Structure formats: structure tokens, C-alpha cells
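Hey,
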Amino acid sequence: QVHLVESGGGLVQAGGSLRLSCAASGRTFGQYAVGWFRQAPGKEREFVASIAWSGGWTFYADSVKGRCTISKDKTKNTVYLQMNSLKPEDTAIYYCATKDSNVYPYNGWGQGTQVTVSS
């Protein structure tokens, strides 16, 4: 089973940037996609962005479209989430996960990385 580790979170002022990393070990990412999700205090986990591991597509939630870019480095078995123009409402724990097929659920959830945006 794949084991994912997120990193790169931190405290940043509104308008700032962060780059999150999601590294896979044990095996490579699922062949279909890798996704970033986030969960703010008192809220349900929500989708942020996803990228095809073997293809070329990306997909973004409306709330981050134009501010975030998801990318991958297959040589490093790592997926990144570049976040710009951060807002206080982006404050959350960010998680990554992967899946082998569109019909399967995401799995391999990591421990998450905390992103805090101050106003």
C-alpha cells in the first residue's frame, strides 16, 4: 500500500504563497490520480485539486482556481500544490491521497500539513 507524506505547510500572511509537497513511499502513486484536500476546523474535508498521474489533466475547486497550481515530478514520486494569493479562509490541514481508478475512492491518506493564513 502506498504511504503518503505531506509537507510544506506553515504560517503565512494573507497574500503570501506556500508550496506543499506530497511524497509517496512503499509504492508509486495510484495510476489514475493524486488529489489534494483540506479540512478546516469544524468543517468537512473538501476537495482542492487533482492531477492525473499517468496523463496530462488537472482539476481545481472553484475556491482555488487561478490561485493554485498542482504539478508532479515522477522522478521524485512527488506531487506539489503551489498556493498563491493566500486568504485566511485557506487556513486548514491539507491532505493528499491517490487512487488507481476513477471508480475507486481515494486512499493512502497522509497525516496532513497545517496551513495557517493570517489577516
